[in-house]
Amino acid sequence: MAQQEARQRRPSIHDVASHAGVSAATVSKVLAGVTTVKPENAQRVLDAVERLAYRVDPLASDMRRAKRRIIGAIMPEFESEFFGQMVTELEGLAEQRGYTLVAASSRESEAREKEILGRMHDWRVAGVVLAPVRNEHGPAASFMKANGMTGVLIDRVLSDDAFDTVSADSAAASAEVARMLVGKGHKHILIIGLAEGAATVRARLEGFRTQALALDPSIRIDVITSEVSVEPLRSSLRDYFGRGERPTAVYSLLLKGTLVALSEFRRR
After folding, report:
1. For the whole model, what pTM was predicted?
2. 135 and 218 co-located in one domain
């Protein structure tokens, strides 16, 4: 029975040291890639590691550092190609540096966003990449600041004093769309979008409206937005088109809005 338990027990660094005839410190150096260990000792360690099928215990290693080699990523949702690709890229970058990425979706809920962040704080993650539901001033970012967490805020943010931020120039991009549509002679444009409280959505809307009106003060710009769910947006679009409204161009601020608009167009 004792022999069976010994076989089932996960081999430790001390087991490797015993089999290799070296100290545990020497084993640690070899596994860390330190080149000052004598070649014959290093080979004995590697042979023992293979023979015992030894694997480094990440929890024990992380406890010594007081931080785990885990990076958290919180995205508003995973359905869009944008956020899915973002997680894929982050995962690759993390693994190149010896970290594991743990990703979760807030599902466009600030309450869930903060809850997930709390779990990651409990796990003592090395840092968090957060694409907030709204902006850099939401409850999640405040939680990170209050608890001294390391993080980067991306996408739906403008700027922040406590964290690095990464985002596109939403206002300038929308202004370019406005120049293109007005330049093509459009006089009635519908703007649709979700997450109306998000910083980037507000910036896109303002950038478009400012540029379009500067080019043509008589242009008509209708705006239909929904806070989170696509269903209220879908309902609003049905009412809008049901009243006989026929804009000559539609500008969608987010991918989900585009998909909803296309489905409603097909109904007409």
Report:
1. 0.66
2. no
